[in-house]
Specification:
Elements lengths: L1 H31 L5 E7 L5 E7 L23 H9 L6 H7 L3 E3 L4 E2 L3 H9 L8 E3 L12 H14 L2 H17 L6
Parallel strand pairs: 3-5
Antiparallel strand pairs: 1-2, 1-4
Helix pairs in contact: 1-3, 4-5
């Protein structure tokens, strides 16, 4: 209950204070590549329920709908502004909306793409599917794109077992550090 209240307050404050940045980034995306500013990605959330997760579009509109690491030559699909958005994690800011409406939490396992069957299955086997997915998470601050799926799930399970307000705050601070250095972003 306290975690959800914290999520709502932070999302409301973030959206209220950050709307000029969100607007500027949305306009920049629209001006630098054809297509919408927001990409609604099909993701798997709590209890393996699908939901639409917003992100600032960082890839071309004709990009195949698969995990970036599965793309042949992923750099070919990333827009020039998209590279910056991904490295700085600014593409994730619209997810405050998903936090506000309850599809996501600030901290939890990153939501799997609808077609990441191996990740979904391993998370289900380890009980991680009970968690609300997060804008950031324990696996995110321990390797991000560089982690193999079994290692991600191991870290997600560790988060499930250790979750607390203090642990969430530590993950949020580690995320801010990682975003400032672009650590762990491969594309």
């Amino acid at each position: 209950m306290a975690k959800r209240a914290f999520d709502i307050v932070v999302a409301l404050v973030g959206l209220a204070i950050g709307w000029p940045v969100l607007l500027a980034l949305g306009l920049a995306v629209r001006m630098t590549s054809p297509g919408p500013a927001i990409h609604w990605s099909r993701r798997v959330g709590r209890y393996n329920r699908e939901f639409a997760m917003p992100k600032f579009r960082s890839m071309r509109t004709d990009t195949p709908d698969v995990a970036t690491h599965l793309l042949k030559d992923p750099d070919r699909w990333v827009t020039p502004l998209g590279r910056f958005l991904r490295k700085s994690s600014l593409d994730e800011l619209p997810q405050l909306w998903s936090v506000l409406i309850g599809d996501m939490s600030l901290v939890g396992p990153r939501p799997a793409l609808f077609n990441q069957y191996d990740l979904i299955e391993l998370r289900t086997q380890s009980g991680v599917e009970r968690l609300r997915p997060g804008v950031t998470g324990w696996a995110q601050v321990n390797g991000r794109d560089e982690l193999p799926i079994p290692e991600k799930v191991k870290l997600d399970r560790e988060y499930l077992e250790r979750q607390s307000f203090g642990f969430d705050l530590a993950i949020i601070l580690a995320t801010a550090r990682a975003a400032l250095t672009a650590r762990g972003v491969s594309h």
